[in-house]
Design brief:
Blueprint: E1 11-14, H1 21-35, E2 39-44, H2 54-69, E3 74-78, H3 85-95, E4 100-105, H4 117-126, E5 131-136, H5 140-145, E6 153-160, E7 163-167, E8 175-182, E9 191-197, E10 200-207, E11 210-211, H6 214-221
Parallel strand pairs: 1-2, 1-4, 2-3, 4-5
Antiparallel strand pairs: 6-7, 6-8, 8-9, 9-10, 10-11
Length: 226
């Protein structure tokens, strides 16, 4: 029998692409557990889902899995959205009877604007009936500095005789588009190449510009060449 949660409280977590999304979701889950109330996760993008690059698709997939694991009430993806963010937040807040909203203070995302007075005032006017939690998070540049890889860049993997190599301009031949994360401190193209296939994220290792495990590409596509 499904547990009945209290309905006088309801939490909405707003996430945007970056390394802090999971932390915000888990923070919202912790608060929702303490209050024994429904939890909703919202992300907004002006592009349609089928136009997302590999990195964005990866975040969506990761957050979807996390929401299932935490038994979140609903993960809401508002893609192809033309309205201002505050309008979307207001719509969801009214639709779901939200009483508390959690957003992150992130240097790279649009949500950082919420920490600035002008946008916050607009948001408070749009959603005056909720409590806001502004969660301080590390700036992405700080996280990257302590990480293993540089910021991801768009790249392509194409067949080169019996191997696959990575290039950074769209080739005329058939190729796989994705995001390349270069290892910090190397002069060579060493790192990880991530790409989306059938709504799933995959990754292959790159060493000196070439894929080290081409069998993975073969198994994904079911053929010997892309």
């Amino acid at each position: 029998m499904k547990h009945l949660k209290r309905m006088d409280e309801s939490i909405l977590v707003c996430v945007y692409y970056g390394l802090n999304g999971e932390r915000l979701i888990r923070r919202g889950h912790k608060l929702a557990t303490l209050l024994d109330c429904p939890l909703y996760i919202l992300t907004v993008d002006a592009k349609a889902v089928d136009a997302f690059d590999a990195e964005k698709s990866g975040y969506i997939e990761s957050w979807t899995d996390l929401c299932k694991e935490l038994e979140v009430e609903e993960f809401i993806v508002r893609d192809d959205e033309k309205q201002p963010i505050q309008k979307v937040i207001g719509e969801i807040a009214r639709e779901k009877n939200i009483t508390q909203i959690i957003v992150g203070q992130s240097a790279q995302s649009r949500w950082e604007e919420i920490t600035k007075g002008s946008f916050l005032n607009v948001l408070l006017k749009e959603v005056p009936f909720v409590d806001f939690h502004i969660v301080a998070v590390k700036r992405p540049i700080e996280e990257e500095a302590h990480g293993t890889y540089e910021k991801g860049v768009r790249a392509y993997v194409m067949q080169d005789l019996e191997n696959y190599k990575i290039v950074f301009t769209c080739p005329k031949s058939v190729s796989i588009e994705g995001i390349f994360f270069k290892e910090i401190g190397t002069d060579f193209d060493n790192g990880i190449f991530k790409f989306s296939y059938q709504n799933k994220m995959h990754e292959v290792r790159i060493k000196e510009g070439f894929v080290t495990n081409p069998h993975l590409i073969h198994s994904i596509y079911g053929i010997s060449n892309v």
